[in-house]
Amino acid sequence: MIRVGIVGYGYWGPNLARVAAEIDDCVVAAIADGSRPALARAAKRHPASRLYDDWRDLVKAPDVDAVIIATPVHTHYGIALSALQAGKHVLLEKPMTETAEQAERLIAEAVRRNLTLMVDHTFVYTGEVRKIKEIVSSGQAGEIFYYESTRINLGKFQRDVNVIWDLAVHDLAILDYILGEPAIAVSASGAGHIVGSPENLAHVTVFFAGGTIAHLNVNWLAPVKVRQTYIAGSRQMIVYDDLQTSEKVKVYDRGVTSDASQEDIYQRHVGYRIGDMWSPAIPITEALATELTHFVECVTASKRPITCGVNGLSVVRMLECASLSMGQRGHPIDIQHLRVAS
Amino acid sequence: MIRVGIVGYGYWGPNLARVAAEIDDCVVAAIADGSRPALARAAKRHPASRLYDDWRDLVKAPDVDAVIIATPVHTHYGIALSALQAGKHVLLEKPMTETAEQAERLIAEAVRRNLTLMVDHTFVYTGEVRKIKEIVSSGQAGEIFYYESTRINLGKFQRDVNVIWDLAVHDLAILDYILGEPAIAVSASGAGHIVGSPENLAHVTVFFAGGTIAHLNVNWLAPVKVRQTYIAGSRQMIVYDDLQTSEKVKVYDRGVTSDASQEDIYQRHVGYRIGDMWSPAIPITEALATELTHFVECVTASKRPITCGVNGLSVVRMLECASLSMGQRGHPIDIQHLRVAS
Amino acid sequence: MIRVGIVGYGYWGPNLARVAAEIDDCVVAAIADGSRPALARAAKRHPASRLYDDWRDLVKAPDVDAVIIATPVHTHYGIALSALQAGKHVLLEKPMTETAEQAERLIAEAVRRNLTLMVDHTFVYTGEVRKIKEIVSSGQAGEIFYYESTRINLGKFQRDVNVIWDLAVHDLAILDYILGEPAIAVSASGAGHIVGSPENLAHVTVFFAGGTIAHLNVNWLAPVKVRQTYIAGSRQMIVYDDLQTSEKVKVYDRGVTSDASQEDIYQRHVGYRIGDMWSPAIPITEALATELTHFVECVTASKRPITCGVNGLSVVRMLECASLSMGQRGHPIDIQHLRVAS
Amino acid sequence: MIRVGIVGYGYWGPNLARVAAEIDDCVVAAIADGSRPALARAAKRHPASRLYDDWRDLVKAPDVDAVIIATPVHTHYGIALSALQAGKHVLLEKPMTETAEQAERLIAEAVRRNLTLMVDHTFVYTGEVRKIKEIVSSGQAGEIFYYESTRINLGKFQRDVNVIWDLAVHDLAILDYILGEPAIAVSASGAGHIVGSPENLAHVTVFFAGGTIAHLNVNWLAPVKVRQTYIAGSRQMIVYDDLQTSEKVKVYDRGVTSDASQEDIYQRHVGYRIGDMWSPAIPITEALATELTHFVECVTASKRPITCGVNGLSVVRMLECASLSMGQRGHPIDIQHLRVAS
Question: Ranges for the Gfo/Idh/MocA-like oxidoreductase N-terminal domain (chains A, B, C, D) (predicted)?
Fold first, then answer.
């Protein structure tokens, strides 16, 4: 039985608490939040959990084995470090930290103490993203040419982070999982339309070592909500539309063929292959339940999580580069420039 | 009665010929194409039109008042210049020319001879784009924040031009018409996935003098066909989906409100305005018929076309800058740098 | 403060309990269910509520003011009658009862004792159906010609009732609310494809006194889920698609015009009016919360509910006739034939 | 080379003429229409065809091998009979005739003279319907439970036939082709909302010998255009949406399973099978070209057409019964009652 403490009972914390309470081998021992109304709501839904108005007390509690942190990103590093130093396993909300350097320090601390450090890249635990990973990894889609994503809606404007840290983070986590290879450069441009708010619209291009190009279109000021991703391989193309109520993933047996035998490339003929479309049945599961069950297993069996600190770091590196590039009107930033000496 | 000669009877020429033949006050006097099978098809459908295998003969024919040019872009300048020098009015397929310099010379030649010079920016003549222009010009949508367009499909790979010149040209023509203000800079990135073919995927960002940002996503290697545009104003937002069979234009009374009275911008509250959606009825018309009727009127009454040479030039300038930027991984290119001395 | 007791903690009961617990002026005093695992789940989520394994005990409890009944339909009459006789207000799950006669007896009992008797016609409390009612009642849509609904999906096959009692009941409740006039006849046909299960596919036509015709297509064995309703008036037509994530209600300014001045009807010209489409913004609310708040208000202020026993009776009458007609291959059944003497 | 004469150059005739002119081994020798403007349009588009203002002259012309009839349905019998008596092969627009008796006489006449008699059931020649036929015939979908079709739009109100003869005829032709078995009974109900016009809304149920039930929802007074068909088999279900621009046919590996081993049917458990969806690639072809090519082949090789007179008769029988039933508020009509003695 893993006894978890949840820090932060604002927007996402209640979901984590609700699901954690329903997981086998897991109990919500404690909840901490600095806001009195938040604590009152926590008391109503989790009468058996101990409540703290200061996370420092929760982190020190001897009957807490693992800490789940769902607070604003600028507080992640401090709370997570304290929790690890107190010998607790940690599950951190995404983005993992404000800087790659902070992420690296947390990883080092967890390794030193042999503790589980996991990042809440929720989409990685959906049936849809897992099915896409399976298709890409099997090679059936061929070489992956590009990943194009549109993730737009009206709201929710954030005060402390721009739209890249809020929305593009999901695609970067998915890319990190599906491609499993390092990004080498990032270019981003964006705009802010509300005085006093960070950029609400951005276009991010990520270049991967294997040749894949990713483009992310994120926007808080869009007329409609869209969650649509196109992944094109040399043999198959995938459409992933997360707002569909069914058939969210469609695989198209489509592409182009090029007559490479022709010596004169101007004479080469580009043909089109239009085959069947196939939409795999994907069991309906709650990603958060899958994820928290995985966290409990990793803690119990000392396994490395699918979305461990290193994956969180990889995403934070891309986010940092994207913000930097956006400040330079799209000037591409090399990822290795940010690596700290190990 | 305007007697037109059509140069080029390949992909688009037959449409121009068919529609021109049905326009009042217009007759298709002649058709020229260097391909024998193309001429045979022209003969079958337009038995009353004279046929030429060399456009030079058509351009010189005394019973041709106006020349419509639907040939590959690299031939536009030569044919159009000859036609103007022979005293013929000219309607040029888009993109107008390969370079801004060529476009400027054609404009000068037409002005000198008092001839009509029009560019076939077809979308400008659709009911949908005209309705959007009306909404934007009336001010009801407020200040235009951005224009975001996705124009993707599988094929048709071109050999001589990249995907920007083939697909983004439509959005640039629409932008030129709707905003009616100059672009100041362009940034573009792209990739080619077929050896020996130009770039088949590109992202183009255009910065306009009035603050509007446009982003165009164009792709010949996409699993599905998409023609979708979002235009966001400070008061209303427009969705234009050209693949819908009805309600192609939807106007959303949506946006954000900012409490500017708060001195501390971090305390300002961003609110969301979610009002009704409205889809104006748009009469079903064939854009090409509207356009050719307009051309005949302009020739007859010596009127300046809605899509005249200057508009064609404006689009070519953006295309040139986009290609230049794409060669420099997105480095933004200032538009005025390309202006030639007048 | 109204103290409610909930009878039945199977599929719908937990939703009623969850929402009732969050309503102001309402407390879930007791929950009854004959199933031990159901009671265990109730205990976990509602630790402060008293639990009964026999509804007879709950109904008699002195600290219960109102009873909410969410049990199989064949038990509704017995439980509701006992509750009314014990002086409790009653909210009954739909369909209200198995027969119109039972419904009439419950109404009489509630009237005699001056108790609130309400039926859980949930859709009547959605923002969408209320907006449609408002449009129809205002007269802006004109005379209502027809109501056509498709309510199909794969599953959930019921054992005790056919698909009409399970799915068409929603449309009948909506029709009762929107039209506010009596149905005069019903014709239905259907088929069962699984041995030992009731009809899983049915087509129901309802004729209303004012001339409106309703047609309901319900099906448990459909490849996809559809929830789509077309309502056509002489001036406007409404499309209500409950599976859309936004713009669920669209109002089309469309119709036909007939040149009635022509004496010879064969010479009369039918014209088409194609005007704008408009989708009203509808606040996102939980129908069940609106409904339970209304129930508490009705109990407290002795108000007549919007979906009172008489509305429940009206729906049960149509259901009875539909089942009768389905057994006679669509022979139309007059509604008044079922009326019992008053 | 087959020389065809086309009778009727109104709505559909121009399409038949255009496509026939492009078919190999086929020439449009003559066109007849009583309307002077129609003949003028025919002259412009088919300058090489002879024109007649009286179909009787065309039917007698010695250089016409086959007559294609695209006139109002009440004229079909007379024109087709004359053509057959003049020794011409006949392709008749759908519905074949006004009555089954007329259809039987035409079939007899064609058989006696060994002439091709074909009916223009266009949908049978689409790639989509052929693919569905292939799936159903192969048995992979299992036993066909039902066919449900919605074919609605605003307009085009007809003066001489009701909506069943105008729209349901398409589904009846598709059913005749796909199932290849006789209908045994038809029930229909409908309503007319425009004084002086026939019924504009109808629901038609057709019972087939093999147990399949078909339901057709047809409507000229609908807010939106819908062309959607669901076909459910015991093993697979098919969705055919003719308004999609791609993936018009989708095959769902879905259904229910019933535990038949349980003796007590009330204890039997209905399970759900939710498998993959698959959308076969269907080559884009023009159905009319496929159909006219088939007609020319049948005439040339004395082959029996896929949609011969017997198929036309089968559809007319269902139409007659549907109209009869609609006049009796849905009273089911047995098909064999209409059979004439052979």
Answer: 2-121
Q: Pairing mode, if any, of strands B89-93 and B237-241?
A: unpaired
Architecture (CATH level 2) of domain C127-283 = 2-Layer Sandwich (3.30)
The highest-level CATH class for domain D2-123+287-308 is alpha beta
Q: Please tell me whether residue C196 adopts helix, strand or coil conformation.
A: coil
Q: Measuring CA to CA, how many Å separate B331 from each of B141, B166, B325, C270?
A: 32, 21, 5, 60
Q: What is the CATH number that goes with domain C2-123+287-318?
A: 3.40.50.720
User: For chain D, what is the radius of gyration of the CA atoms?
Assistant: 21
Task: Report pLDDT digits (tens) over B322-331.
Answer: 999 998 878 8
Q: Which residues of chain C have pLDDT under 70?
A: 259-268, 337-342
Which of C221, C157, C195 lies closest to D261, judged by CA?
Answer: C195
Distance from CA of C63 to the nearest CA of B (A): 44
Pairwise CB contact (< 8 Å): B221 & A256:
yes
Question: What is the rounded distance in angstroms from the CA atom of residue C250 to the CA atom of residue B279?
Answer: 10
Does D224 contact B246 at a Cβ distance shorter than 8 Å? yes
Q: What is the pLDDT of residue D264?
A: 60
B224, B225, B245 member nearest D243 (Cβ): B245
Do residue D222 and residue C237 have CB atoms under 8 angstroms apart? yes
Residues of chain B predicted below pLDDT 70: 259-268, 337-342
Pick the CATH number of B124-285+319-334 from 3.30.360.10, 1.10.1040.10, 3.30.565.10, 3.40.190.10: 3.30.360.10
A128 Cβ neighbours under 8 A, 6+ residues apart: A240, A242, A248, A249, A282
SS3 content of chain B, % helix, strand, coil (to 5): 35, 30, 35
Superfamily of domain D127-283+319-334: Dihydrodipicolinate Reductase; domain 2 (3.30.360.10)
Instruction: Say which CATH topology domain A124-284+319-334 has.
Output: Dihydrodipicolinate Reductase; domain 2 (3.30.360)
Q: What is the mean pLDDT of residues A33-56?
A: 93
Distance from CA of A331 to the nearest CA of B (A): 6
Domains B2-122+287-308 and B124-285+319-334 share a fold: no
ipTM score for this prediction: 0.90
Bridge partner residues of D271 (DSSP): D257
Select from A274, A275, A279 the Cβ nearest to the Cβ of D276. A279
CA C291 to chain D, closest CA, distance in angstroms equals: 31
Q: What is the CATH number of domain A2-122+287-308?
A: 3.40.50.720
- Is B275 close to C281, i.e. CB distance below 8 A? yes
Alpha carbons C256 and D155: distance in angstroms, whole number = 8
Nearest to A277 among D247, D253, D275 (CB): D247
| Nearest chain A Cα distance for residue C296, angstroms | 22
In chain B, domain spans: 2-122+287-308, 124-285+319-334
CB pairs under 8 A between B and D: 9
Residue D341, pLDDT > 80, answer: no
Which residues of chain B neighbour D22 with C-beta distances below 8 Å?
Answer: none
Model confidence over C123-155: pLDDT tens digits? 999 999 999 999 999 999 999 999 999 999 998
Q: What are the beta bridge partners of residue B237?
A: B232, B252
Peptide bond into B303 cis (omega under 30): no
Structure confidence by residue, pLDDT tens digits, B137-163: 999 999 999 999 999 999 888 888 999
Helix, strand or coil, per DSSP, at residue C150: strand
The contact set of A with C (CB < 8 A) is: 47, 224-225, 243, 245-246
Smallest Cα distance from A157 to chain C, Å = 19
pLDDT of residue A160: 84
Q: What is the mean pLDDT of chain D?
A: 93
Q: CA nearest D275 in C: which residue?
A: C223
Task: Decide if C189 and D193 are in contact by the 8 Å CB cutoff.
Answer: no
Contact in structure between C227 and C216 (CB atoms under 8 Å)? no
pLDDT in tens, C324-337: 999 887 888 998 74
| Interchain CB contacts (distance < 8 Å): A and D | 26
